[in-house]
Design goal:
By secondary structure, this protein is α+β, with helices and mostly antiparallel strands. The protein contains 8 helices and 12 strands.
Length: 265
């Protein structure tokens, strides 16, 4: 640039300085992007490690070990509706497209992909039967994950922790636990980085349980009445969900209703 200036090419000097400045800016942006991505991967890796550490593993050894590459999804993603967003993720780990039914499932996939703990995974990998209202139903857990240390666990992902207190989901998780225990698999029930155990262990004051028990003793409660009940006593829904789950009471949707025992029981 100094030579250009001496030769009277000040215009070339300006152009060169501009190019150097742009290159420096591009390199700095690239370094920042790489730094942010590394931090993101470390965060996701630690997040998955915390979830894995929360799993209660069965005493029996792992014996049902069909290699993941021989498994395939048993159903396609649901159609996107007002409550969820479905789609496909191009997996670098699996070298194929992975289907998901919600933002929560997509976030879990991103965590699996970023973690060094994971050897592989499959979505909607098995079909489990569960009993509800005297009938046999079937459902497909969200993921089956193989860890690099040889352990395997089944995963159910929800958008919020309170969903595990729904009667249908309680029946599903009980059946999934039995299914995993007989195969030596772990079971992870998670929502937003928390687990079902967080719902079980949630500290709720006794007066909340007393209020809820007194209200439900009068019969089944629909949504308008239950909403008024929550607002009147300034109750947090997650506290109520924790009590419903621990007591084995009945919360169902479509239509919404809460009761101490299922209708007709």
């Amino acid at each position: 640039m100094f030579v250009c200036h001496l030769a009277g090419h000040d215009h070339d000097v300006a152009l060169t300085q501009d190019r150097v400045a742009k290159l420096a800016l591009v390199r700095e942006q690239r370094r920042k992007a790489e730094y942010l991505e590394q931090n993101r991967q470390r965060y996701l890796d630690l997040k998955l490690a915390r979830l894995v550490n929360s799993i209660v593993w069965p005493n029996c050894p792992l014996h049902d070990r069909i290699p993941l590459q021989f498994l395939c999804p048993l159903r396609s993603p649901k159609e996107t509706d007002r409550r969820s967003i479905s789609g496909h993720w191009e997996s670098q780990l699996l070298h194929r497209s992975v289907g998901y039914d919600s933002k929560a499932e997509l976030a879990f996939i991103e965590m699996l992909e970023a973690s060094n703990l994971v050897q592989g995974y499959c979505e909607q990998p098995v079909e489990i039967e569960y009993a509800l209202n005297g009938d046999i139903h079937r459902y497909f857990p969200d993921f089956l994950v193989d860890l690099s240390d040889g352990r395997r666990f089944l995963v159910e992902v929800k958008g919020s922790l309170d969903e595990f207190a729904k009667r249908t989901n309680m029946a599903k998780m009980a059946a999934a636990r039995e299914y995993c225990d007989t195969r030596g698999w772990g079971l992870l029930s998670t929502a937003n980085g928390r687990t079902l155990q967080d719902l079980v262990d949630r500290q709720v004051e006794q007066f909340v349980e007393d209020l809820l028990r007194h209200r439900l003793a009068r019969g089944v409660v629909g949504w308008p009445s239950f909403r008024e009940f929550l607002q009147e006593h300034k109750l947090q829904w997650l506290d109520v969900a924790a009590i419903i789950y621990r007591k084995g009471w009945c919360w169902q949707t479509e239509p919404f209703r809460v009761s101490i025992a299922p209708a007709g029981a």
